[in-house]
Amino acid sequence: MTKHLFITGGVVSSLGKGLTSASIGMLLENRGLSVRMQKLDPYINVDPGTMSPYQHGEVYVLDDGSETDLDLGHYERFTHSPLSRDSNWTTGQIYKSVIDKERAGCYLGQTVQVIPHITNEIKDCIKKLEGPDVDVVITEIGGTVGDIESLPFLEAIRQFPLDVGRENCAFIHLTLVPYLKAARELKTKPTQHSVGQLREIGIQPDFIVCRTEQPISAAELGKIALFCNVPEKHVVEERDADLSIYEVPITLVERNFDQMIVEKLGLSQAKPLDLTKWRELLMRLRHPKTEVTIAVVGKYANHKDAYKSIYEALDHGGIANSANVRVLRIESETVVREETRALLEKVDGILVPGGFGDRGVEGKIDAIEIARTHGIPFFGICLGMQCAVIEYARNVMGLPEANTTECDKDTPDPVVCLMDSQRSIVDKGGTMRLGSQTTYLLAGSRSAGAYRSLEVQERHRHRYEFNYEYRDRFIDAGLIIAGASPDGKLVEVVELEEHPWFVAVQYHPEFKSKPTVPHPLFRGFITAAIRHRHGLKPGEESAIVNDDF
Ligand code: GLN
Questions:
Q1: pLDDT at 549 > cutoff 80
Q2: Using a 6 Å cutoff on CB, does residue 140 contact ligand 1?
Q3: pLDDT at 547
């Protein structure tokens, strides 16, 4: 029988609920259990695909093309839980489906209400992940207890034990225990209130995980236990990780949290933990053999979560190379400034990520020119690849007005244009070329070498493409078309031969990188950055780093 773990959050948002959920998933999986993960988001958008990264951070794309919350990125980086459309539900989706059913006559005669129709719909979504081979479903509830929008979700999980048995469910509440500098004290009151609110709804948490900057004393843990009606050992301290988010599972293991969950849910089939690989990756983070500085030149550089998966994947590339990756976030609009250009000329690698709209595009193109002309390793992703194509057209092929029609509809040289399949589409949600698609790579290309394969599956999210009509002119001018869709029509990868490492891809490799399995292109990019920093020739980097992770 599948067991259920529900994770709620209190006091404030941005507590790292997704990370804690992913860490718990990783630990249970490590103990030989089969885990499924999902997130329920209380906002009304059907999915986050239509939200600005400023509002919601990165939109994380799954193999099946669903556009999801960035916490699913943590789930994939930490666990092997297969994720799909069924792994992220929003209020918008739930209501849409209930309203569609009502119109189809499924509730004939009934008054359709939040309880039971919306709550039943939510419970059905949770139950979709159950299965004979699934030991635990972990369901994270977005938002903070006390928000109006999250009430139907909390009511649904309150009812859940009535359907499947209380012994098959565990509730984890994540809270903040703030430190007041002036008083030199940790404060437990917000936690008490937050758990009080949860109990008013009818949910008694089994565990309380306390996010804190400072160690929480036994007396304070005891106080939280008493006021919140949980056993003392079930109050778990989760202190801020100072090195990396990948320390979180270890912090939880040190508190015996995995074992307590196993006992609470009666998961007697659980095996002992084996964290050898995980500890090795932490060792590599703690004791890097070298360091590189990578400039990420994007339009949302100031937002910490807008390029979340890219920052993580860069770290993975660092882990693979035993290198510390220092990321310099550069707002692309500032590349016009002399001091920004001077800064870019000194970095060990330049990455231009994806994006939409014309703001900051010229700065990205300028940054790519610096990378190309100074032999600085360059990695372009999605819009970053399209900008690389424009830069080449303008500065090498003598087409000064070349552009993407996304930025200039009337450009005389639309080297990047709307895909044919997109021309008749007017709706915005879920209508791009999305999800996993096959790319055939050119034998002998840098990417084929990095992947050690001529056929790869990567995730996409775009409307515009390299304009096929210019293909031969680009090839004649020296741009290498290193990857294309199986029919050869969509260009997926471009490279430059006479450059230490210039690889730009139409897809999003960052979504498939894990700390334990760094993505080949991020690994290759960081290796190239190490060579650049130390003035090494290909192969010589092994004198500095050990690339056998
Ligand atoms: N705006 C570009 C397109 O739609 C690039 C998209 C992206 O970078 N994700 O094709």
A1: no
A2: no
A3: 60
Q: Is the pTM of this model over 0.85?
A: yes
Main-chain dihedrals φ then ψ at residue 474, nearest 5 degrees: -65, -45
CA dihedral 293→294→300→306, nearest 10 degrees, is -100
Q: What tokens were used for 472?
A: 């031969």
For residue 404, CA distances in Å to 290, 484, 548 come to: 38, 19, 40
Residue 292 neighbours by CB distance under 10 Å: 28
User: Quick one: average pLDDT of 48-53?
Assistant: 88
CA distance 110 to 117: 10
Label each residue of 3-71 as H, E or C. Answer: EEEEEEECCCCCCCHHHHHHHHHHHHHHCCCCEEEEEEECCCCCCHHHCCHHHHCCCEECCCCCEECCH
Among 310, 404, 405, 463, say which to mutate for ligand 1: greatest number of ligand atoms within 8 Å of CB. Answer: 463
State which ligand 1 atom lies nearest to the alpha carbon of 357.
1
Beta strand 169-176 with 3-9 is parallel
| pLDDT of 92 strictly over 90 | yes
Rounded Cα distance, 286 and 319, in Å: 10
Q: Given the structure tokens 């994006």, which residue do they identify? A: 355
User: At residue 393, what are phi and psi to the nearest 5 degrees?
Assistant: -60, -45
What percent of the chain lies above the pLDDT cut of 70? Answer: 99
Q: Which of 387, 343, 395 is nearest to 361 (CA)?
A: 387
Q: What is the pLDDT of residue 421?
A: 85
What are the pLDDT digits (tens) for 231-243? 999 999 999 888 8
Handedness of CA 489, 491, 492, 498 (dihedral sign): positive
The verdict on whether 382 is a catalytic residue reads yes
Question: How far apart are the CA of 354 and the centre of ligand 1, in A?
Answer: 6
Helix axis angle, 338-346 to 361-374, nearest 10°:
40
Spatial CB neighbours of 146, under 8 Å, sequence gap ≥ 6: 10, 194, 197
* Residue of minimum CA distance from atom 1 in ligand 1: 356
